[in-house]
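Teaching assistant here, posting this on the class forum so everyone can see the example we discussed in section. The complex has four components, and the goal was to see what a joint structure prediction looks like when all of them are supplied at once.
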Amino acid sequence: MLSERRLQVLRAIVQDYVGTEEPVGSKALTERHSLGVSPATVRNDMAALEDEGYIAQPHTSAGRIPTDKGYRLFVDKLAGVKPMTAPERRAIQNFLEGAVDLDDVVARTVRLLAQLTRQVAVVQYPSLTRSTVRHVELLSLAPARVMLVLITDTGRVEQRMVDCPAPFGDASLADLRARLNSRVANRRFADVPSLVEDLPEAFEHEDRGTVSTVLSTLLETLVEENEERLMIGGTANLTRFGHDFPLTIRPVLEALEEQVVLLKLLGEAQDPGVTVRIGHENAHVGLNSTSVVSVGYGSGGEAVAKLGVVGPTRMDYPGTMGAVRAVARYVGQILAES
Amino acid sequence: MLSERRLQVLRAIVQDYVGTEEPVGSKALTERHSLGVSPATVRNDMAALEDEGYIAQPHTSAGRIPTDKGYRLFVDKLAGVKPMTAPERRAIQNFLEGAVDLDDVVARTVRLLAQLTRQVAVVQYPSLTRSTVRHVELLSLAPARVMLVLITDTGRVEQRMVDCPAPFGDASLADLRARLNSRVANRRFADVPSLVEDLPEAFEHEDRGTVSTVLSTLLETLVEENEERLMIGGTANLTRFGHDFPLTIRPVLEALEEQVVLLKLLGEAQDPGVTVRIGHENAHVGLNSTSVVSVGYGSGGEAVAKLGVVGPTRMDYPGTMGAVRAVARYVGQILAES
DNA sequence: TGCTGGCACTCGCACGCGCAGAGTGCCAGG
DNA sequence: CCTGGCACTCTGCGCGTGCGAGTGCCAGCA
């Protein structure tokens, strides 16, 4: 177990390194922090911290920088979440309240997060699978062609074309629409399949094929998880990453374009609170030199989607976590209101 | 007027520079291209070309690189559009045909363009203002709350919440829906305002306020041009830009995040064919070292939106123009089918 | 036992230098 | 009008050097 002072030394190293982006030495540490001991003592502590794998030196006789393990300890034990100030909170709220629809909410959230944290922001659209159905609409576009529109309680709209096996009358369509809505409105997505299972039986034999087709398209839409869209922003902040550019930035940009990767990344965060994944803790290799700070947000008590930021492992964790948490909270409020 | 050979020299310079990314000298030129003259002659031609502003040297006694003006001449006079090969065309078509809905079409288009050109791809969603209304749906969510859903012929769906001044019965709602659709279905957006102008008069006095509100929301949605969304991809290709990274790449990333800028950029391209904006021809300063190749695409004869790529001025213009044109053509086909 | 000051040592980095190579402009001759 | 030759000008690169920051270790002290 590390002594109290050694933890303080680690904390100081992390803070200084985050601030200066340069390896920090024993002398500078004692000057900038009142540790009450001499550089020599700090050197001994540093040697110990290095033995334990919390810090490392880029090359012999340079200062130390924190390792992923060091950041992990810092986040878990040495630093809290820095709350937003009141003016900041007001600004967040004001900015988000100007949104006109769901797309706009997400777009504003991304921009806000990117600005606040000066990092890359990722916001997942409110997920289908955890929401409830507000309305299902069926439109006849041609005798044997129906458009299915699904509206969720989070304001999201999904549409699908359905090619019917047989022509489908307007009356039947209205009938199906009414029955469908009376069954599934305000129900959770997960419950829908069992609720509509026997629906075809209520129809004339000739229409059953079409009804089944429509229903299966609906179910498909509900579970279609690769449709979990997300929006990213603030990629220009990547340029603040480091000096050894192309090598660092490229894999990150590539990872960011792989929606699958990002969704998995956000999905991993299961805690109720803010989740932090540091460096190699991220499964994707392209993100091994980045940290991901994410959190769930939702319109009620329950989280319907995730949002977060991607930045260098050398980031201001308390501040970033505070911003991410605050934004998530206010987005939740906005969604609940609309 | 430049002699034929000087134009050939310019063409050779552009081609070599695009290939090697390095200033090209007179000797290398004669070796790689059979111009039939000696390096000394080429030097004279180069001096002339430099006087005219088509090429420049980064520093005395280095090779030449084309200027924006040089690229412009190259694009306009010296190079055609390189058509895609048959296998490439098949691949494009196959890839796009797998799309399940409009979002997917756009997403696939972006990925495709980015891959083909190895540059940043930008695809505008089919524009509202040039399309026709397929259907307007009204859903009662609460006594004084209506959701308006607008479906376009390109498969795009827009929704808006409407807070009504007074409660609105289901019968009235159904009435409004029917009247509305009979008037505007399959009409162009531009024609809608005059078509619904007198609609409130057909309703009871108590409902007129609500009807007006709904209609004005509909009109708002129709003209809301900042809602012209777009999708970008292939930003990782920016890392291939140059060696002097941060300075080049940063403003580009910033510009790409400003949808307004991009929309204006694509909007500028008015030609029926492929439009190329080179370097400083782009109004936005962040894009002064990039070229934009764009083209309209559409589901009929008419263009409903634009797509294009953003890359370094040093790009393979014929190939890029060919790819952009081919992709636009096939996206148009896909949209027409769905 | 733990902290401190002192000291020798290590290394990376910035700086200055010189050299080779590529490329040019110009000129005289065909 | 083209060509070969020649002198000139740069940039980039490799190399050696000195500097400074930082470390590790050791002996002394509370």
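For the discussion questions: The CA atoms of residues 118 and 196 of chain A lie 47 Å apart. Chain A has twelve helices and ten strands. Think about how each of these relates to the inputs above.
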